Task: inverse folding
């Protein structure tokens, strides 16, 4: 049989410094990101911030600079330009949404028609979101995150003993916060679809944790003499290959999305990819060591 | 268990067949099916979301406060009329959102109380201040939203859009979804226009009328309004008529002094249609009043011969012709340099009736058809590449067992599309992502089982019992991992907007079906192989 990993015997618990350094850095970035988002200083998508975004598909390649100057001359202010060069697509977005919602989109197309009359284009999409909808979507997203958290907590509480529940919960939060932090660090836009990706990560990263925890639980009931840290180590080693392979197959699918799925899905797929990596790491290096925080050597002995 | 392997295969076969029947409408094959099939078998399939087929998603807020204000204004007018009929000398005027009667008396207070119980009266000094009760205000707002919904539906029906969705959302919002609309701008204007048609008499007697400028730049409207704000009579107002110079195309505005009180409104219309001017071939809208409206129109024109009557739509004067003679029959024309489409849309909004309150656009998501089809193409490529990558990996790593897992994967995909088609679920772009992620997760269950079976084999168990105990022991883990994904998908479904909902639907269906394909599908094949043939060694 083909094996990625032969029988391993890695002392994961002994490698606490990895946990401390990696998790420490990821968590700090994540917390900064959350703080910045709360302060309104992060790059929020127009679905949360309110604003207008117009995506155009030009018939011929068009230099971004000429689009920029045409818009500036047309009196459009505070806009951002994004280019999808292979498809001759340009996305113009501005986070202003006051008064008549259609005004900015109309202004953008009018400015281009007037200043770049020879560049033919079709309007792919127009999205205009008023401040009221933006704040509603923000609160919906917050509600969704809270609800998902409560749902997962209830399930974990129902399924695991307390100590496991704490480990799984912390690992799940760790993953979501870490991906959010990485996105913030990369200057990626935080929008509705990224939040959906984060929730998906929360659900999926739990899978890996469950695989490891199930094995620890199973091994704890088998041998009464082993120390907890040795049971954890043995269990992680036993399930290491399947943890990696399950992540790998989902990673392959998400990578296909990332590479070929198109612009809208790009960031979503990126978040999932990061989430899979961080989730696999956390189920090994974060969730399990937390079980050791209950110092008594065999706190989960057979009933 | 072993004996019913046959029945399990039959069951799997049946589910595949059902899935294919449901999904058939989404394939080109459906066209070639016989008539009875197209009529009686599932014929809708999976619906493409607005982000994939193109179209409009609009959210409007019905400005209910304005409907309340209009109602209060009408009460103020009625009270004023009622009091003057009773020869009670007093001044009735609007104050904020209420009415102030100066000075008041016991008789006036009684009159108001008897006739307008929805108005809450408080006396302030000599005056009586009337405010609409909050319950009544709520009722008016609610009513306005209902009416607006109905009006928008009528307009869209006449505009002609296939399968529009028009719904109320929350207290005062209306969501309109128009798939496949070619001219989004026109549709938005058509829906958003208040279409309050009014007829008002031009005030030519006031000395101010002569002082108004002949015509101004469109940007100067506010200046003119400010300039004359204090000078015009209390019952008058200034509105503007659009003047288009046909040769130069220059637009100018002409201010007109009007009596504030409308003598007739669009409520009295019975018909509106586009006609062509015989001289210039220019379209105009001809309107007919209902019986009551026609009578009123006859009275007004009769009493005001040689005066000007302005036709006003949403506070823009379209024309202000001089009444030549009494007009009976109840017909009138609205002219205003319309294009054919403009005239047609105007006739639609007039026929469908005015909105009870103005609409404010909260959200506008317009997707063109090319973007949608490009997204579908990209989604297909990603789906095929992702599936192939997973399929090859499984064969490479688990050999024959990988082939079995791949069979389950294909079964999973077929059933997923079948299930979506049977629910007439909406496939959105994030939904495609959900399908592809579900493909990646689908083999997870098999990976967990296979790894467990490998362990059992290493422990020295024969293939038959290795498979059985592998399945048994992996089950709880598989179940757990599915449940956690389903929890987040359910939350996303609850709180997500259209596209995100689509993602939640495909992901949760994919995960749920996976439980079936992994536990019934692959297990049946293993059972078949291990019972029929004496397998010495599993290819895993």
Result:
């Amino acid at each position: 049989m083909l094996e990625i990993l032969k029988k391993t015997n890695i002392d994961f618990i002994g490698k606490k410094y990895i946990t401390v350094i990696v998790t420490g850095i990821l968590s700090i970035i994540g917390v900064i990101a959350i703080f910045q988002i709360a302060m309104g200083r992060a790059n929020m998508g127009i679905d949360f911030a309110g604003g207008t975004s117009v995506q155009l598909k030009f018939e011929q390649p068009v230099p971004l600079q000429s689009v920029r100057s045409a818009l500036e001359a047309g009196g459009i202010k505070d806009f951002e330009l994004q280019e999808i060069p292979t498809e001759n697509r340009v996305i113009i977005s501005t986070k202003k949404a006051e008064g008549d919602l259609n005004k900015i989109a109309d202004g953008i197309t009018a400015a281009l028609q007037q200043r770049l009359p020879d560049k033919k284009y079709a309007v792919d999409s127009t999205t205009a979101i008023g401040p009221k909808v933006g704040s509603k979507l923000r609160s919906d997203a917050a509600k969704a995150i809270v609800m998902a958290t409560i749902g997962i907590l209830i399930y974990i509480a129902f399924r695991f003993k307390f100590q496991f529940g704490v480990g799984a919960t912390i690992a799940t939060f760790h993953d979501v916060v870490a991906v959010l932090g990485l996105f913030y660090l990369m200057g990626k836009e935080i929008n509705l679809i990224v939040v959906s990706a984060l929730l998906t990560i929360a659900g999926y990263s739990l899978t890996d944790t469950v695989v490891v925890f199930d094995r620890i639980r199973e091994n704890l009931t088998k041998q009464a003499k082993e120390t907890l840290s040795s049971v954890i180590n043995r269990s992680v080693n036993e399930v290491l290959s399947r943890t990696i392979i399950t992540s790998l197959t989902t990673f392959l699918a998400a990578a296909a999305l990332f590479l070929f799925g198109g612009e809208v899905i790009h960031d979503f797929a990126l978040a999932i990819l990061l989430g899979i990596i961080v989730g696999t790491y956390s189920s090994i290096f974060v969730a399990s060591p937390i079980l050791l925080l209950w110092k008594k050597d065999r706190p989960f002995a057979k009933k | 268990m072993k004996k019913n392997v046959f029945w399990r295969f039959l069951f799997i076969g049946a589910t595949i067949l059902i899935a294919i029947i449901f999904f058939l409408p989404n394939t080109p094959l459906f066209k070639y099916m016989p008539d009875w099939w197209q009529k009686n078998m599932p014929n809708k399939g999976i619906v493409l979301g607005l982000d994939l087929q193109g179209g409009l998603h609009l959210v409007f807020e019905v400005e209910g406060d304005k409907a309340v204000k209009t109602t209060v204004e009408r009460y103020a007018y009625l009270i004023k009329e009622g009091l003057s009929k009773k020869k009670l000398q007093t001044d009735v005027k609007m104050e904020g959102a209420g009415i102030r009667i100066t000075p008041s008396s016991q008789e006036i207070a009684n009159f108001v109380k008897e006739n307008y119980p929805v108005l809450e009266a408080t006396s302030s000094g000599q005056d009586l201040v009337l405010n609409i009760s909050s319950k009544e205000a709520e009722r008016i707002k609610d009513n306005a939203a209902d009416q607006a919904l109905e009006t928008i539906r009528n307009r869209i029906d006449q505009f002609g859009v296939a399968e529009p969705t028009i719904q109320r959302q929350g207290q005062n919002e209306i969501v309109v979804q128009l798939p496949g609309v070619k001219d989004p701008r026109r549709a938005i204007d058509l829906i958003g226009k208040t279409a309050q048609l009014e007829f008002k008499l031009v005030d030519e007697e006031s000395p101010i009328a002569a002082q108004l400028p002949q015509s101004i730049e469109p940007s100067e409207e506010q200046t003119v309004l400010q300039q004359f704000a204090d000078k015009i009579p209390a019952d008058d107002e200034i509105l503007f008529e659009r003047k288009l110079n046909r040769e130069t195309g220059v637009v100018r505005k002409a201010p007109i002094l009007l009596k504030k009180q409308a003598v007739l409104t669009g409520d009295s219309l019975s018909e509106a249609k586009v006609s062509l001017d015989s001289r210039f071939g220019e379209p105009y809208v001809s309107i007919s009043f209902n019986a009551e409206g026609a009578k009123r129109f006859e009275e007004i024109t009769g009493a005001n011969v040689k005066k000007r009557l302005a036709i006003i739509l949403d506070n823009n004067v379209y024309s202000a012709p001089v009444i030549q003679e009494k007009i009976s029959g109840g017909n009138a024309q609205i002219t205003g340099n319309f294009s054919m489409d403009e005239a047609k849309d105007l006739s639609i909004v007039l026929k469908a009736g005015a909105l009870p309150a103005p609409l404010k656009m909260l959200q506008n998501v317009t997707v063109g058809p090319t973007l949608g089809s490009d997204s579908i193409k990209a989604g297909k490529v990603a789906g095929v590449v992702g599936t192939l990558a997973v399929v090859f990996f499984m064969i490479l790593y688990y050999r024959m067992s990988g082939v079995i897992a791949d069979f389950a994967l294909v079964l999973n995909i077929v059933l997923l599309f079948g299930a979506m088609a049977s629910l007439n679920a909406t496939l959105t772009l994030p939904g495609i992502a959900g399908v592809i992620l579900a493909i990646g997760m689908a083999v997870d269950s098999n990976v967990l089982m296979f790894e467990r079976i490998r362990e059992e084999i290493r422990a020295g168990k024969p293939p038959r019992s290795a498979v059985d105990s592998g399945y048994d022991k992996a089950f709880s883990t598989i179940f757990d991992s599915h449940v956690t994904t389903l929890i987040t998908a359910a939350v996303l479904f609850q709180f997500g907007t259209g596209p995100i909902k689509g993602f939640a639907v495909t992901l949760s269906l994919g995960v749920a079906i996976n439980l079936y394909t992994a536990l019934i599908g692959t297990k049946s094949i293993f059972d078949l192989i291990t019972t029929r043939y004496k397998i010495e060694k599993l290819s895993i």
Observations:
- Chain B has 15 helices and 19 strands.
- The first helix of chain B runs from residue 5 to 23.
- Chain B has three domains: 2-54+368-532, 64-136, 198-337.
- The radius of gyration of chain B is 35 Å.
